[in-house]
Amino acid sequence: MAVKSELKQKIILLLAAGVALNFSKNPRGHFKIIKAAAQAWKDIKRERLVRVVREFYKSRIIDYKENRDGVVEIVLTKDGQNRALKYQIDEMKIKKPEKWDGKWRVVTFDIPEKKKKAREALRNKLRDLEFKELQKSVFISPFECEDEIDFVTEVFEIRRHVLFMRVDSFTNQELLELKFELY
Predict the structure, then answer these.
(1) Of 134, 114, 95, 110, which Cα lies nearest the Cα of 122?
(2) More confident site: 94 or 46
(3) Measured between alpha carbons, how far is residue 1 from residues 8, 52, 149 in Å?
(4) What is the pLDDT of residues 87-129, one digit of tens each?
(5) Where are the domains positioned within the chain?
(6) Which of 5, 40, 92, 143 has the greatest CB tally within 10 Å of its CB?
């Protein structure tokens, strides 16, 4: 990814962090987001920030909103929010615990042909998350990932076509235990 697009991605994610404040119920979460975002804004050169903000406005990624007190806020449009989600999904990783809990996470899907792009995007994301493909529409991982799968299916708008399961065992699982280096 080019430096210029990394800066744009960073700015969109920082703007999205403002949205994240509204969803965080924990006050500690508010301060953590504010502190990280404030430092990140300081790291961006003002001239570059102004240039990117103008470009985002022309591209309808952001909009300006004037409050009653005259303060103008920069807010993400729906398209900007979608881009922020895409960037977040691109950075997503599954945490690997030190000790495996002995459960398998299975994702299976039957996505209609009219959503072929979403189906392929899901397959690619599952591979990116280091799932192993058991069949064309069945993937498996030994690590906890339900939240990540929920997020991915929501972003791709395919939740009703995807099943997430936790299973204790299946035939020939030893081969996958070796592939995932669970011993």
Answers:
(1) 110
(2) 94
(3) 11, 16, 25
(4) 778 888 999 999 999 999 999 999 999 999 999 999 999 999 9
(5) 3-91, 104-179
(6) 143
Rg (CA), the chain: 20
115-136 per-residue burial string, b: 16 or more CB within 10 A, e: under 16: eeebbebbbebbeebbbeeeee
d(CA 119, CA 127): 13
Query: Rounded to an integer, what is the distance from CA 163 to the centroid of its chain?
Result: 19
- Topology of 104-179 in CATH? Alpha-Beta Plaits (3.30.70)
Is residue 72 scored above 80 in pLDDT?
no
Q: What is the pLDDT of residue 32?
A: 59
Query: 1-15, 20-34, 108-122, 169-183 — which is least confidently predicted?
Result: 20-34
Q: pTM surpassing 0.70? A: no
Given CA atoms 17, 58, 77, 126 in this order, what sign does their dihedral have? negative
